[in-house]
Design goal:
mainly beta, ten-stranded antiparallel barrel, 2 helices, 10 strands, 57% strand, globular
C-alpha cells in the first residue's frame, strides 16, 4: 500500500496548474512562480484516511518551462522532496516530468479544468482534475488512482498561491 500513498500524495498535494490558468490566462505555469501550498486528504483501500501538505517554490526557466520543488509532509511520515519540470506543448496541453512518476506527465485543458495523467510504480494509473475556485488564487483538486481499471485510492484537496 505504500505505492498507493505515494501516488495519491504526489498528485493530491502538488498539482501544477492553477485557477488563474483555468480562468483563461495564457500563462498558467506562472501561477507556480514563487510559493504555493497544497493541502488534501488521501484515502486508499483498507487504510485510514490521512492528511497531506506540500509547500512549493517554483521558477520559470529561460526556456519557458516550470521548475517546481515541493516539500511534502504526509501525516505520520518524514518530509520528502518532490520535483516537477513542466512545459507547454500546445495551446491547451502541457507535458513534463515529476520525480515520483514512472511515465511522463501529460496535462490537457478540458472545459476550463486541467486533467493530469501519469503512471506510478506498481502498475498504477493516476488521473487528476484541477478546477478553479472563486477569486482565481486557488483550485480544487480531485485525484483518482487505478490499478487494472479498479479505483484503489482517491484524494481531494486545494492548492493555493501564497503571497511571497
Amino acid at each position: 500500500m505504500n505505492a498507493f500513498r505515494l501516488i495519491l500524495l504526489s498528485a493530491a498535494a502538488s498539482s501544477l496548474l492553477p485557477a488563474p490558468a483555468m480562468a483563461g490566462s495564457l500563462q498558467p505555469l506562472q501561477f507556480f512562480e514563487g510559493r504555493t501550498e497544497s493541502m488534501g486528504t488521501v484515502k486508499t483501500l483498507l487504510k485510514k484516511p490521512f492528511k497531506s501538505r506540500s509547500v512549493g517554490r517554483g521558477r520559470i526557466e529561460p526556456d519557458g518551462s516550470l521548475s517546481l520543488v515541493q516539500q511534502v509532509e504526509d501525516e505520520g511520515k518524514p518530509p520528502r522532496e518532490r520535483r516537477w519540470r513542466i512545459r507547454q506543448t500546445g495551446p491547451r496541453s502541457f507535458s513534463g516530468t515529476m520525480s515520483e512518476a514512472s511515465s511522463p506527465v501529460t496535462i490537457d485543458e478540458v472545459g476550463g479544468r486541467f486533467r493530469f495523467r501519469f503512471k506510478m510504480k506498481g502498475n498504477l494509473s493516476v488521473e487528476q482534475w484541477l478546477a478553479p475556485l472563486s477569486g482565481g488564487m486557488a483550485a480544487r483538486n480531485i485525484l483518482t488512482v487505478r490499478k487494472l481499471g479498479m479505483t484503489v485510492g482517491t484524494s481531494t484537496g486545494t492548492i493555493r498561491k501564497v503571497a511571497r
